[in-house]
Structure formats: structure tokens, C-alpha cells
Design brief:
Length: 236
């Protein structure tokens, strides 16, 4: 695209949705300013830019805000030259949009419940929902990849970016809970895909290994009050 672009991304380091947008911008070779937000003390810029949901990511392009990660990904793909993120074929494009939306609508709430559930019964239910959603993504990979390395074919595409942005959180859950969300015996296609994705240049730049370490710390801090309360109750 001709001309100088003023791009600013409002985000959080551990948000998979923010990670997906950063990966897409990097894939396009676009320069942008990244601004960390504090959701406990939201900036005026965030509140003004996303008055409906008041959450990140928000991409501000020449003063105009674009909200919601999937919308931003499509905007970036349509606006900037370079490698395509979404498929060019209309049917494949629609299919990719469906599975990316599925990951956001079904997989994310289930996985987030695993991380944040206070009661073991609730966590067990969220684990069940998460594994069911991942099994659907296994089927999706078989259909979308056409026997190639990625959802996007020979190279990383739209669904790869969306699902791949969750992988460091999946690793954190494995370390903390011993839960393998992507399991080589139950989801072998996704397990092989995750290895390829993790070894890609795109992933190494957008999702450094340290992100999983930080996610482990987040889970531990989040669960600490509940663990302390349970310990106190058991001692009474």
C-alpha cells in the first residue's frame, strides 16, 4: 500500500488474540507502534477506541480504530500487500473464517475456563469442553490442509495464526495441570502441526518461549487466592 501508514496496536502481552494480530502484521512486514494496556486501569485511548467492549486488541490505523482480532486480521490481509493470510478461493476462505470463529467462540471460552475455574467440578467440565473443541479442530485440519503442512496449505495462513496463538497457553496448562490439550495419540494431525508451527519463523518471532513461562506465572497467581482459601478451610 502506498504512503506512510500510522499504525498503533493496543494489546496485552499474554492475550492470544493480540498475539495473532502481531503475527499477521509481522507476516505482512508492516511497522507499527505497540502499546501495552492495563485492563485494571484502561487508558482513555482504549475506552475511546473500543467503547462497546472496552478490550484489546485494537488496531488504530491513521486514527481510525478497528476492533476484534478476527476483524483486524482480515483488515490487515485486505489492506496490505505481501503474502496472503486468508485463502483466495471463496469456499476455502469461508471455511477458514468458520474455523477461526469456532476457535474464538468455542475453544477460547472452554480453555479459559480451565485456567480460571475455582471449583474442580467446573474445571473438569471445561476440560471436557476444551478437548471436544480440539477434536473438531483435528477434523478441520484434515479438511483444510489438503494433506499439507498447515491449515493454510504449504504455508501458515489464517486458521494457523488464530489457533497457533493459543499454543503457549496450552503449554502453560500442560505444565501446571498436566493436561495435554493437543495430544499425539488423540489428535495426531494437530500434534504434528503444532510442532511445525512452533518451529516456524513466524511463531518464533511472535511467540517466544518465554511467553509460556509468563503464562505459567499468571495461572499460579490467579489460582493462589483460591488455593489459600481451600487450605484455610481444610484446617478449620
Amino acid at each position: 500500500m502506498a504512503g506512510k501508514e500510522d499504525l498503533k496496536l493496543l494489546g496485552l502481552p499474554l492475550s492470544p488474540f493480540v498475539v495473532s494480530v502481531r503475527m499477521a502484521l509481522d507476516m505482512k512486514g508492516v511497522s507499527y507502534e505497540y502499546v501495552d494496556e492495563d485492563l485494571n486501569n484502561k487508558s482513555e485511548l482504549l475506552l475511546k477506541s473500543n467503547p462497546v467492549h472496552k478490550k484489546v486488541p485494537v488496531l488504530i490505523h491513521n486514527g481510525k480504530p478497528i476492533c476484534e482480532s478476527l476483524v483486524i486480521l482480515q483488515y490487515v490481509d485486505e489492506l496490505f500487500a505481501g503474502r496472503s493470510i486468508l485463502p483466495t478461493d471463496p469456499y476455502e476462505r469461508a471455511t477458514a473464517r468458520f474455523w477461526a470463529a469456532f476457535a474464538g467462540d468455542k475453544l477460547f471460552p472452554a480453555w479459559y475456563g480451565v485456567v480460571t475455574a475455582q471449583a474442580e467440578e467446573e474445571r473438569a467440565e471445561k476440560v471436557k469442553e476444551t478437548l471436544a473443541a480440539i477434536e473438531h479442530m483435528e477434523v478441520a485440519f484434515a479438511k483444510c490442509s489438503g494433506g499439507n503442512a498447515f491449515f493454510g496449505g504449504d504455508s501458515i495462513g489464517y486458521v494457523d495464526v488464530v489457533l497457533g496463538s493459543f499454543l503457549f497457553w496450552f503449554e502453560a496448562v500442560r505444565r501446571v495441570d498436566g493436561l495435554e490439550i493437543i495430544n499425539a495419540s488423540k489428535t495426531p494431525l494437530l500434534a504434528a502441526w503444532a510442532e511445525r508451527f512452533g518451529g516456524s519463523v513466524e511463531a518464533k518471532e511472535a511467540v517466544p518461549v518465554t511467553k509460556a513461562d509468563l503464562a505459567v506465572q499468571y495461572i499460579s497467581r490467579f489460582r493462589a487466592p483460591a488455593a489459600a482459601a481451600a487450605k484455610l478451610a481444610s484446617s478449620e
